[in-house]
Amino acid sequence: MKKNILVVDDSALMRRIICDIINSDEAFQVADTCRDGLEAYEKLKTTTYDGVVLDIRMPRMDGLELLKLLRKENIKTTVIMVSTLTVQDADITLTALELGAEDFVPKPSNAIEAKGIGFRDNLLGVLSGVLKKEVNVPVKAMSKKVRPVAPVANIRSGGRNGNKIVAIACSTGGPKALQSVIPFLPKDLNAPVVLVQHMPVGFTKSMAERLDVISPIQVKEAEDGEVLKKGIVYIAPGGKHMEVQRNGATHRISLNEMPPISGLRPCANIMYDSLRGCSYDQVVCVVLTGMGADGTKGILSLAKDKSVYVISEDATTCVVYGMPKSIAETGIVDEVVPLPEVAQSIIKNVGVQ
Question: pTM above 0.85?
Answer without folding.
Answer: yes
